[in-house]
Design a protein that fits this description.
The chain has helices at about 100, 110, 115, 185-195, 195-200, 205-210, 250-260, 275-285, 320-330; strands spanning about 5-10, 15, 20-25, 30-35, 45-50, 50-55, 70-75, 80, 85, 105, 135, 150-155, 160-165, 170-175, 180, 215-220, 235-245, 245-250, 270-275, 300-305, 310, 315, 315-320. The chain is of the alpha+beta class and about 325 residues long.
């Protein structure tokens, strides 16, 4: 699961270029605009990340109009992503103060009300049909990829997470967090039927040999996400990851399964040595998948060959477009 915490971090300020009373603080890979006087003589602060919900207390009254949700904004022309507050006495670097401050993670309505919006009956799921972990943002792990690491960068698709699988000789369908009835009324079951997934699984060589196979992807298009329909009047599925017998496969193998199951893949925007310059060049702009129908949500960066980082885990990370965040208010 994607990491969410309010962490005590070192504070180093730079002068705001267009405001005498403001400064810019960099936290990991995030940038916050702060009131300079709040940090006079202060060496530590608590970083409150994007999509935090603040408690309705007097100190957060100025956030009431935003329903106490922390979003991307611009302050005097400078991007600010998150809130940085001075550390309290006794706090130490690396400390998790989420509970102490009463801060919660904001959950999108489509996840809070999944049964209402996406329908379908939840059914028990085996461990082998596991959900896909959330992809961390690069700002939280800015050193996960080094300059020159061989990577693939694809467009990040804004939809609803979906998985299809074959486990213990049985076809399964699920959303990001739960298994659904495979022939029910949910959008996950319907897309599976439109793609004839059960038939494809039952005749696949790997599943015939009693292997466990899970295909992970995104359902996107008309009415899946507000204002991000990719120019479609219906919904489609796009494959982005494959797990065989509990092991995630490399990109070339994912491409192979896309051909076997006749599924689309997200647009590959770049393949080659990693660099922050390439990331910044690709993250903003219009969607390639939707042929410029609207802004792209961002990009996903993964190792060409599966690699492991001791802090991040699997080397698989995303960067969300600043343009998208400002438009969406996230």
């Amino acid at each position: 699961m994607s990491q969410f915490k309010v962490e005590v971090v070192p504070v180093k300020l730079e002068k705001h270029p267009d405001a005498d009373l403001l400064s810019i603080a960099t936290v990991k890979g995030w940038q916050c605009v702060v009131k300079t006087s709040d940090f006079d003589g202060v060496e530590l602060g608590a970083y409150i990340p994007l999509d935090s919900i603040l408690p309705p207390m007097p100190e957060w009254e100025y956030m009431q109009s935003k329903k106490y949700r922390v979003r991307t904004i611009r302050l005097r022309g400078i991007l600010s992503q998150g809130i940085l507050i001075p550390a309290k006495e006794g706090w130490v670097e690396g400390q998790d103060v989420t509970e102490e401050l009463g801060i919660k993670k904001w959950i999108p309505p489509e996840e809070r009300q999944e049964k209402v919006i996406h329908g379908g009956v939840k059914v028990p799921e085996p461990a082998k049909f596991c959900y896909h972990t959330d992809i961390e943002r690069i700002q939280n792990f800015p050193n996960a990829f080094k300059e020159g690491d061989e990577v693939i960068i694809t467009e990040k698709i804004h939809g609803t997470n979906c998985r299809f699988g074959w486990t213990d000789g049985q076809y399964m369908v699920g959303s990001h967090t739960c298994r659904k009835e495979c022939h029910g009324v949910s959008i996950y079951a319907r897309i599976g039927e439109e793609l004839d997934m059960e038939h494809k699984f039952s005749f696949n060589l790997f599943t015939k040999e009693n292997n466990d196979l899970v295909l992970y992807g995104e359902i996107y298009g008309f009415k899946v996400q507000k204002k991000f329909n990719y120019g479609l009047e219906t919904q489609k599925f796009i494959l982005f990851d494959v797990q065989l017998n509990g092991v995630f496969l490399e990109w070339e193998e994912v491409e192979g399964y896309a051909k076997i199951f006749n599924l689309d893949l997200p647009p590959v925007l770049y393949k080659g040595p990693f660099s922050n310059k390439v990331v910044e060049e690709l993250v903003n702009g219009l969607t390639v998948l939707g042929q410029g129908a609207h802004l792209k949500e961002g990009i996903v960066i993964r190792s060409i060959h599966e690699e492991w980082d001791e802090r991040l885990g699997r080397k698989w990370i995303k960067k969300v477009s600043d343009e998208y965040l400002l438009k969406k208010g996230g």
